[in-house]
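Bug report

Summary: structure tokens for Alkaline ceramidase differ between web form and batch submission.
Environment: batch mode, default settings.
Steps: 1) Submit the sequence below via batch. 2) Compare with the web form result.

Sequence submitted:
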Amino acid sequence: MAEGISSFWGPVTSAEWCEKNYVHSSYIAEFFNTISNIPGILLALIGLINAFRQRFEKRFSVLHISNMILTIGSMLYHASLQCMQQQGDETPMVWEMLLYFYILYSPDWHYRSTMPIFLFLYGAAFAIAHAWVHFGIGFKVHYAILCLLCVPRMYKYYIYTNDASAKRLAKLYLATIFTGSLCWLFDRLFCNDISRWYFNPEGHALWHVLMGFNSYFANTFLMFCRAQQLGWNPEVAHFMGFFPYVKIQKPKTQ
């Protein structure tokens, strides 16, 4: 904690990251790790507006909202460094992956009512178990497994997509998650060395920013693929010449 600054939230009860606590404000423990979630909220809001405006399926609206809930949970966690807020960050991470699993696999699922029921019960059971047991490394392993389960389907969507702009979204998704993971590992593994540097590169904050873009690229790519499945003639348009979003043309009967 910075000298002379008292803590609004009390003693730290959660995992800490490689940023000095309460340097800029007594209300925000890890300042950069907190504000670095703002781009993720704004990007999720942009995606939500596009999903509403073009009347995409409700699953995508829920997905964008879940991204916003996750980033807000992360802000509260890094601002307070409290155990309860840490669980409020980690549990939505699992819920979000279950949503991705549903969006990826539900189009070919023969018993469609069973998947959302199972995923809902699974998510609720995890939330209760995590609140009771406080998983540590088990949470990270569990989350990594959920991510890996989505990879085969994402790859299938990629190889069956011929649109160059859509493929570019998938490549941006991979680039941001790879770079973000390196930042996360660097911050976590070399914190003792970084703490002696004059300048802290804030690897975990960079992870937040990159993962905000990562979620946006993933969501936009999945919206394109789903619109293609439904025959909505999707195309990747660019706002102001560089910011990608999906534009569709539904048949008049829809």
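Above is the batch result. After comparison, the two runs are identical; trailing whitespace caused the diff. Residues 35 and 115 are 36 Å apart (CA to CA). The radius of gyration is 20 Å.
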